[in-house]
Amino acid sequence: MNDLSALFWASSVDELKQGYRYLSQEECFICLSCGQAFSKGLIYPQGSQLMDAERAVQTHIRNEHGSAFAFLIELNKRYTGLTDSQKEILSCMADGQGDKDIARKLNVSPSTIRNHRFKLREKEKQARIFLAIMQLLTSQAGQAGLDEELVPVHREATMVDERYVMTQTERDKVLRTYLKDGRMSLLPGKEKKKLVVLQYVMERFETSRTYTEKEVNEIIRTIVDDYVTVRRYLIEYGFMDRKRDGRAYWVKT
């Protein structure tokens, strides 16, 4: 789970646009939506066709997620900066609808849609400049050996604030303090440290499978005895989701 979040946030704009990235060391293509891997050199059956790894991951994204656009547009507002109205307009534009069609669908005037399009284009300009600034800053900071990289935030975090501001060194220190031979007796009281422990627990779960409540409990108990509290926190903090009846749990990606 943590690896997928790290991969997602470390991806280039082009990789986010295509919805997958190639990992040279593992020699596989990874879907950035769900983490499913397709190994280079293998042939994958897709319906009545046989495909190489890259074409298979492209087909997977189209069949399982609609498109990279469909996945990205549904990300939380704190990542996209888009209002619900803007997301709906962009989705209509992606479907090839014109101003009049969109206006009719949303029950507004065509001029309102044009104003939205203008604001979105201005937002795009700002995003390009900001991206260039941050890439230059990262390059210069890397050359100078400045600040340590922050631990990535998982994509489905329910609230991103100062609790998530932590370096890898700080994270390792928390784990050394509370974990003894991979287990702990009690959860940390402070929220920031608690998040570190929850992230550590989530490393035991796979993104590509569904778990029963019993399986979730057993995995948590390999680290801490109070599996009920930890299981609740995993849901509350957006690490996992479940069916209403609690019969199925899965990693939120």
Principal-axes shape call: globular
Give the class from helix and strand content and strand pairing. Answer: mainly alpha
Tell me the β content. 5-15%
Number of helices: 12
Largest sheet: 3 strands, antiparallel
Overall number of structural domains: 3
Please provide the ordered H/E string of secondary-structure elements.
HHEEEEEHHHHHHHHHHEE
Helical content class = 40-55%
**CATH fold group of the largest domain:** Arc Repressor Mutant, subunit A
Q: Which CATH class of the largest domain applies here?
A: Mainly Alpha
Radius of gyration: 21 Å
Return the CATH architecture of the largest domain. Answer: Orthogonal Bundle
- Physical arrangement of strands within the biggest beta sheet: 1-2-3
What is this structure's SSE topology?
Blueprint: H1 2-10, H2 13-18, E1 20-23, E2 28-31, E3 37-39, E4 44-46, E5 49-51, H3 53-65, H4 68-73, H5 77-80, H6 84-94, H7 99-106, H8 110-144, H9 168-178, H10 191-202, H11 213-221, H12 227-236, E6 240-242, E7 249-251
Antiparallel strand pairs: 1-2, 2-3, 4-5, 6-7
Helix pairs in contact: 7-8, 9-10, 11-12
Description:
This protein has helices at residues 2-10, 13-18, 53-65, 68-73, 77-80, 84-94, 99-106, 110-144, 168-178, 191-202, 213-221, 227-236; strands spanning 20-23, 28-31, 37-39, 44-46, 49-51, 240-242, 249-251. The strands form 3 sheets. A 3-stranded antiparallel sheet has the order 1-2-3. A two-stranded antiparallel ribbon has the order 4-5. A two-stranded antiparallel ribbon has the order 6-7. Helix 7 (99-106) crosses helix 8 (110-144) and helix 11 (213-221) packs across helix 12 (227-236). Strand 6 (240-242) and strand 7 form a beta hairpin. The relative contact order is 0.09. The protein has 12 helices and 7 strands. By secondary structure, it is mainly alpha-helical. The chain is globular, with a radius of gyration of 21 Å. The longest helix has 35 residues, at 110-144. It folds into 3 domains: 2-71, no CATH class; 75-144, Arc Repressor Mutant, subunit A (Orthogonal Bundle), CATH 1.10.10.10; 162-251, Arc Repressor Mutant, subunit A, CATH 1.10.10. The model has no long low-confidence stretch (mean pLDDT 88).
